[in-house]
Amino acid sequence: MSGPPFAIGELARRFGLALRGDPARGIDGVGTLAGAGPSQLAFLANRAYRAQLPATRAGAVVLREADADAAPGTALVSADPYLDFARIAALFDRRAHPAAGVHPSAVLDASASVDPTASIGPHCWIGPRAVVEAGAEVGPGCQVGEDCVVGAQSRLVARVTLVARVRLGRRVLVHPGAVLGADGFGLAPSAAGWTKVPQLGGVRIGDDCEIGANTTIDRGAIEDTVLEEDVRLDNQIQIGHNVRIGAHTAMAGCAAVAGSTRIGRWCLVGGAAGIVGHLEICDRVTITAMSLVTHSIREPGEYSSGTPLQPRRQWRKNAVRFGQLDMLARRIGRHPQEPSDE
Amino acid sequence: MSGPPFAIGELARRFGLALRGDPARGIDGVGTLAGAGPSQLAFLANRAYRAQLPATRAGAVVLREADADAAPGTALVSADPYLDFARIAALFDRRAHPAAGVHPSAVLDASASVDPTASIGPHCWIGPRAVVEAGAEVGPGCQVGEDCVVGAQSRLVARVTLVARVRLGRRVLVHPGAVLGADGFGLAPSAAGWTKVPQLGGVRIGDDCEIGANTTIDRGAIEDTVLEEDVRLDNQIQIGHNVRIGAHTAMAGCAAVAGSTRIGRWCLVGGAAGIVGHLEICDRVTITAMSLVTHSIREPGEYSSGTPLQPRRQWRKNAVRFGQLDMLARRIGRHPQEPSDE
Amino acid sequence: MSGPPFAIGELARRFGLALRGDPARGIDGVGTLAGAGPSQLAFLANRAYRAQLPATRAGAVVLREADADAAPGTALVSADPYLDFARIAALFDRRAHPAAGVHPSAVLDASASVDPTASIGPHCWIGPRAVVEAGAEVGPGCQVGEDCVVGAQSRLVARVTLVARVRLGRRVLVHPGAVLGADGFGLAPSAAGWTKVPQLGGVRIGDDCEIGANTTIDRGAIEDTVLEEDVRLDNQIQIGHNVRIGAHTAMAGCAAVAGSTRIGRWCLVGGAAGIVGHLEICDRVTITAMSLVTHSIREPGEYSSGTPLQPRRQWRKNAVRFGQLDMLARRIGRHPQEPSDE
Predict the structure, then answer these.
(1) Structure confidence by residue, pLDDT tens digits, B57-109
(2) Architecture of the domain whose range is A160-303
(3) Which residues on chain A are in Cβ contact (under 8 Å) with C240?
(4) Domain C6-92 CATH (choose: 3.40.50.300, 3.20.20.140, 1.10.150.120, 3.40.1390.10)
(5) Which residue in the list B97, B103, B123, B241 is annotated as catalytic?
């Protein structure tokens, strides 16, 4: 996390921020308000951390105008400190970028096509008719299956599998263990057992999407499973076949979407939330953590299900009563003094 | 998804279906009712899509007798259109089957045994005493650990790990990222911390099972974890050690079954449903999505837990009341006018 | 599960247990009370299985003093039969340990450092500045990324990915498919879309931790994600960035912890339970399966959320009433005969 320092004045100029304090101070990394040292940059975006500002030892702090007077040292004033911090912090992400070219241990099908500016890591397999575009990076241990496309500047970090007919746009980032384009879960029942329904569609991932570690996105049964641009999926998310997710929608870890559901743009899906199949969710819907969506949603807003956490002894009494709730409600309803103004 | 066409009359004959329309029409792929073109086959099984039938441009449609008159063009009449469509669609699944033999980059233990008609892909490892039977296909990046058996005609799509003592039956299909035979979660507590309980059993998977992407099935502590034949598991499912799952049971994505539970035949477990350990679930039980099963089930039927999704403001008020439910119920119960006929 | 037998008298001596019966009896494996044969060792710890004791055919049984008289044959008397069984059973875990050294198909960065007593399996990649310490075992298909450390005697079973800046302590066991050190899910929103927040921290895993198959632990945004010593994580668990988990805490499969939450020591988190971000959970808290924790917990004890499983028809009626609960409660509250002593 350390490297050649940037003068804070140079950072102010480059990111268009007002500077309060010493422009010559050198910054060689980032830290938290509580933990940063005198050569590190911190930020204050969440009001909850404001109490830490006066005592910070950070070399400089990105913060709002309103907080600038409370900063003990150099400050970069921003209308959106978290966003500007994110942009500046990228300067300190000194990952070793692999050289272009194909590692000798990788195996390429004769019909695969790899741009000479792309990088293919150790122990990768690039299958029939697969395409890896300019500047793309396929990390160690990936499989890029038949008819898949890794778009320009996209990166498969390591051990990612694109099974078949998966097309990534540009600048897509896929984390380790993700599986895109596995068979959707399609089964036709009969008295003799299950008959597999062939999954003949593919997966299309828009530009600038990010797919978390061990997340799975199945390919469509007939048409494609689609993520529009700038969709952000955390780890261990499951996306069923034929799902369509609108641009800029973000989902937290362990969320799951069943087959053929369509989700709008700018939605936020909380951790481990579930959405059953064949629904339509409109734009700008927020689903809170571990909620289950069982019907389509046509109004933007925030939605929840579940019950609050309680000490188990209390919870158990209430849970038993949940099982009697209809009976209890009918008792209330029958009562002669029942109020009628609800 | 396109290839040499089949005459629709030939398809009718091969699958034993009545034909209405032109037997010479060529079909070279499949499509949805709404999206199929004149050389594609569509189907109508779910009543919800019936409105799309009159306007379909599909070359032919598989449908029920009752719907045949509404078809604008050629129709294949079936008692079970979804099942017959699944069978016909398999003709258009033109996956490149790898040639038999072991890829030069694969590593085989000296004591492993691979049938000459099996295929072992790039970067696979086949461990001590492992067996790969006739016609089996081990895709790129798989590990087949000690004492594992990949049964005849089974397929590990890519990057599947069988850890130890995992025996797959015939025609088993395992999707990428699945891990079968990892240690069960067995720990003995003491004041000094946890002591690991060795996991000395294995995993047995019956014929015709399908295991989804990133699904995990632990091996037993002493005896085996068992899936009987034709069990179908979607993606990201977790099966604990010593679990037994009956034939033809199917589970949707992200379901989880804790250790030593036994599930019957022909059960359906919804997405992200949970079943705690040491239970018995009888045959033909359906658990709906995200329900939690905490006691054994002895009657076939459908079971649920949880609360309905609501706009968060409403939900919050109701959730607070859930926490008071026992108190509220006792108020009702004490009431002098309490009805006694419930 | 069978090998050269141990005399039961030798086992009694080695583990400090009192023997009742024939010290010369040979034991060559383990079994359940119901399934063990005359050369196998069984155990009785859970009262629920006591009825199986009189009929067991096991060569010997590890059990409590109080149960010893009911044993039909040889008994090893223990104050903690499960713990002592775990220790003895380890003798029968005859896994083939790979020889020290680097497999010729593995790829090591020139700046990586591997102890000569460590083992690196087929198709592994050891990245820039990565370190594999003495006696560590890196199984087939693993990636150990830049600046990662695999501590002494630790084992990556197979196909594990350490992405960047992941430091494992000693004797850490990581199961296949686990991904440690992937980017945390940090995004700054703006009208134009999401901006990725660089994840510049790492992951630190204490001594004697165990990480389950397909579990994911993200690296910190600025500081590290931390597991203290002897933390035990089952399969498919998701740990967000900047989380800290105290020593001896254990989590069952599919649990998830969102970013920046701190969990105490000796906690137990049930299967598929969720803990939202930025909370503090004190020591010795138990969260039951599929509960959602949305506020900090300051008192040790057991906590739950959710509703009980019911036949769907009953459940549906009650669930509808949940949606009316605040209204129903207000009716009760307004009632003139409302009791005042609650």
Answers:
(1) 999 999 999 999 999 999 999 999 999 999 999 999 988 889 999 999 999 99
(2) 3 Solenoid (2.160)
(3) 253
(4) 3.40.1390.10
(5) B241
